[in-house]
Amino acid sequence: MERTLAVILAGGKGARLEPLTRDRAKPAVPFGGTYRIVDFTLSNCLNSGLRKIFVLTQYKAMSLDRHINLGWKRYFCREHGEFVDVVPPQQRVDEHWYQGTADAVYQNIYSLEREHPDYLIILAGDHIYKMNYQLLLQYHLEKRADFTVGVLPVTCREASRQFGVLEVDEEYRIRGFQEKPVEPRPLPDDPEHCLGSMGIYLSTARFLFELLCRDATRSASRHDFGGDILPAILGDHRVFAYPFLDENRKHVAYWRDVGTLDAFFEANMDLISVDPQLNMYDQDWPLRTYLPNIPPPKFVFSEPHRCGYALDSLVCSGSIISGGQVERSIISPECRINSFSRIQDSILFEGVVVGRHAKIRRAIIDKDVVVPPGEEVGFDPERDEARGFVRTDKGVTVIAKGSHFSPVAGEYCSLS
After folding, report:
1. Partner of 264 for a Cys bridge, out of 22, 146, 258, 372, CB 3.0 to 4.6 A?
2. What is each CA distance from 372 to 385, 398, 410, in whole angstroms?
3. pLDDT tens per residue across span 130-162
4. Domains of the chain, each with CATH number or no CATH
5. Which residues have CB under 8 Å from 191's CB, separation 6+?
6. What CA–CA distance (Å, rounded) separates 18 from 53?
7. How far apart are CA 108 and CA 50, in angstroms?
8. Is 152 left (phi over 0), alpha (psi -120 to 50) or beta?
9. Apex CA 329: angle with CA 323 and CA 332, to 5°?
């Protein structure tokens, strides 16, 4: 692992997560109250012994850059050759923005070569899962592979138009690839499932550099690992699929691409269940993040007519439940829930203030939003949409970062 360099692709727009990605990149979107999405990939790297990491950014990278600098630099020692570096587009070899996942790595090939790695592992910074990359490297070496792809079984219905689908032989050598097919080819012994690509790639560094340079000269290429690099090497090289081994240690492997608002909402709501699918409390595979110096959460008032409490919920540091009622919700750091308000089945990001007698149901409220006294969110779809709130297909109301209500007319306004 000391000779392996990790490259985390963290430059995606995350358009389907609007408005949560209006001011931040998708990997920087908060998750589970305390974490950011990118924390899961970074935690995997640290727990796997990977201590040389480039994080490639592109769109709206300031929040992500700040988070990594505040929360992650302290885990790495430069004097021992360890680092996690946030790398914006250098345009060293091309004046264009990244054209695809392979192009993002190619445009930073100069920085990668300077580290003289033996192996390169390419990771996505916007997926939530637990994985030991050391086992992936061991598998790659045992197979004497030129290129290895992380895979997991998914239903054919789920994979349709969403996943790259791989065909393998009995040794798990990849024999075919479909790029987000409408009708994925199922596994030979399971007509309901297929092998989906996780967007994880491992290769000998020199071999990958040659592939990237060759792909960069092809004008017809989309410069994507799944769509271009992988199909071009299937016939002539040893390309293997690595079955996902989940460090979450549940009955069903946990891997989530929270690329839509509804998927994001459901993955968060899982965390407050009695036995959540994602175990965030496993000290054998710790999840790390930036934790500011703020006081513990506080619950105020225990009176017959006014009681501050939270049931089946996550309440983060710095938050005060002051006579309000919270049920089945996630309250991020430094929120304020005032008296007689009620929050149900909702996610509140950092710094949200809920006024007295306000009611919130099935909503995602982004950072620094102030909900005025007596307001209701998530009860009247037409009124929510008329105020400019986003309504998902499954009826979740989403309020953008830094938004506010007019105290006079109750209309929605955007501070941006």
Report:
1. 258
2. 18, 16, 8
3. 999 999 999 999 999 999 999 999 999 988 888
4. 4-270 (3.90.550.10), 298-414 (2.160.10.10)
5. 156
6. 28
7. 19
8. beta
9. 80
Instruction: Name, in order, each residue with C-beta under 8 angstroms of 181's C-beta and a sequence gap of 6 or more.
Output: 159, 160, 161, 165
Instruction: Please tell me the pTM assigned to this model.
Output: 0.93
For residue 93, what pLDDT band results from cuts at 50, 70 and 90? low
Q: How far apart are CA 107 and CA 209, in angstroms?
A: 11
Query: What is the torsion angle, in degrees rounded to the nearest 10, for the CA atoms of residue 371, residue 377, residue 383 and residue 388?
Result: 60
Are 346 and 332 spatial neighbours (Cβ–Cβ below 8 Å)? no
Q: What is the mean pLDDT of residues 407-413?
A: 48
The one-letter code for the residue type at 166 is: L
387 by DSSP, 3-state: which?
A: coil
Tokens of 327: 């049920």
Cis check for the bond before 373: say yes or no (omega within 30 of 0). Answer: no
Residues 327 and 242: their CA atoms lie apart, in Å, by: 41
Distance of CA 173 to the CA centre of its chain: 29
